[in-house]
Amino acid sequence: MSIPFTSAFHHMPTPAFIAQIDSGEIVAANESLENLYLNVGAARQTTWQALMNDSESNLASIVHKVQRGEVERLSAKLEVGDRFITAEITLTELDDRHVLGYISHTEHLDFSVAENTLLKFALTESSAGIWMWEVEDDTISCSQSIASLLGSSLESTPHSSQAWRERIHKDDLPKMVRTVEEHINHKQRYYEAEYRIRRANDEFIWVRERGRTYSQGPQGEVLKIIGFIEDISPQKALEEHLRAQATFDELTGLLNRGAALTHFTKQLGLARRQYTPLTMAKIDLDARGLLADMPLEKRNTAIHTTARYIYKKIREADILARVAHDKLLLLLPNTSLKDAQKLINDFLLPREEEQKVLEFSDSSHLNLCVGLATFPEDGETIEELAQSANSAVEKGRTTGVSISIAE
């Protein structure tokens, strides 16, 4: 075949190859890949199956997974002469028949260098340190800055998931374990968790951990995860201070009815003085009655998960409160009815990964019903708006629609 940019391909420093998708035959290899084998006097593999050291590996099937976004980077053990090299293979389609693969090595990843390179993949400058977890071998590698965060030497940082979990506060451990297991079981790309971790001096600090799938197996299984943790103790201290200043719902962490009324009244006053639109949404978390027969603990978990999911979808200026066991009120300042409907549709149509999170907690976006009321058409006080929104949501429950507008 004719290879575009032939010279660039052959001289690129990263080992690379071109393979036929259907047959798996490697039809071209660049100098870096050829030299990898020539340097040890070994013959380069000529097929995808031989390269992967797996006679059952199907390149066409893997390319389909790449197209669907299920696989981004494959882990592989490349047989080079008498040794195996741990590597990652990234595939990019060239045309309908051919794929470009390039190979990167992480066997001897130097985190002291990685922390100052693109390997951070936009982890933000506030990150405390990078780690990599090889899931199958249960091996964790930490950067020096994680050692500093934990107040220990690099050699004393956790080198396995069990060692890491032994440092996590016992009250935070179950949720953390569930988050990571869900990430792996559902073959997700990202996860985020907050928990307390014990430093070398036995002091606990709050950290935020963000992980990203780095490489996968042929079936999309997660093989390596890379991410970072940062110290968020100051933010947590501020949250506790604010919690002492206001009243929050214990189950969901949202404002309760009394605290919400103060905020709602203030926003209504601004809308009245500035002649800006304002919309109120009454959200029924159990419009289809799916939670009614659940045990209390599971029902509470479903309510908590759905409420936090909605909270993450709204804007910073919006105000969300829990006003009954399975009811929320959402105030949307400076928002017309049309814009409110767009916002509500956003959380009524969750992305695939968001839907999996909801299902994991026995909750569902299909169980939601939202009633909308606008100021001043449907009420000139908070109480009137709330009543109009409540009437709308009751109408929606009866008619089986997800969004109902006050009449």
Search tags:
407 residues; alpha+beta; Beta-Lactamase; Alpha-Beta Plaits; 3 domains; five-stranded antiparallel sheet; 14 helices; elongated
Write a brief caption for the model.
Residues 276-407 form the GGDEF domain. With 407 residues, the chain is an alpha+beta fold. The protein has helices at residues 6-11, 31-38, 48-52, 59-67, 111-114, 144-150, 161-165, 173-185, 233-245, 257-274, 296-313, 337-348, 352-360, 382-399, and strands spanning 16-20, 26-29, 74-80, 83-93, 98-105, 129-134, 139-142, 190-198, 204-216, 222-231, 278-284, 319-324, 327-333, 369-375, 403-405.
> Main sheet, how many strands, which sense, barrel?
5 strands, antiparallel
Based on the coordinates given, report the CATH architecture of the largest domain: 2-Layer Sandwich
Based on helices, strands and strand pairing, what is the structural class? Answer: alpha+beta
Strand order of the largest sheet: 2-1-5-4-3
N/C terminus separation: 66 Å
- Helical coverage, percent range: 25-40%
Number of strands: 15
**Rounded mean pLDDT score:** 86
Shape: elongated
CATH topology heading of the largest domain:
Alpha-Beta Plaits
User: What is the element string, with H for helices and E for strands?
Assistant: HEEHHHEEEHEEHHHEEEHHEHEEHHEHE
